[in-house]
Amino acid sequence: MDIATAIATLNRLLASKEPAQFNSSWIRRHAPRCYQFIRVNFRREYGGIDWDRLTCALERRFQRLWKPERITKRSLYEEPREIDAIREKFREKLYVFIAPLDKTDTRIADMIGISFVRLAQQGNRLARQELCDLIRFTVDTWIERHETIARWRGHEEELQHQIEACIRRYRYTGSFLTYLFRTLECAGRGIVPYQAYSLDHRKGVLAHDR
User: CA-CA distances (angstroms) from residue 64 to 19, 41, 60, 165, 200?
Assistant: First the structure.
């Protein structure tokens, strides 16, 4: 079995069984040979099965059926070797958060981001901080280019809270960057633009002085 065969097998199985949702236990029960192949060949940089890599390769109609095992609350810890494993794998690609050249770079940014997200969800505080630092380059670009996201300018503390909340909540195996963008876009609609507020406030002060 190879990767293409494993993906094709799962696509056929999902099409025939039509489950309302599926997870790793479902795959192990209905396709044990596929599961064993996945367990060996779809690995994260710091250990464990990379289910995101697998499910993103499935047909789109099946991706949203993925229901990962519930993440139990874990004690926070700091393990720099896990961070180093991700950095080592992508050391020549970290520029994608600053200046992605094309859609391939954007996809790579998602892969890196999701690796840090899953590690942060396991409890590694260093992973959360590392991703927050990297993702801010991308968010700053959005602020410059998108009117709704630009409303976050001047609201640094709340913006940081939103980013950290997205890291905690992210479950779906689709694009983390898209999830973050949509979250900031939606939440940003209720924010008064910082510059406009400052200008209006200043006008009010001047009128009052007169």
Answer: 11, 22, 7, 21, 45
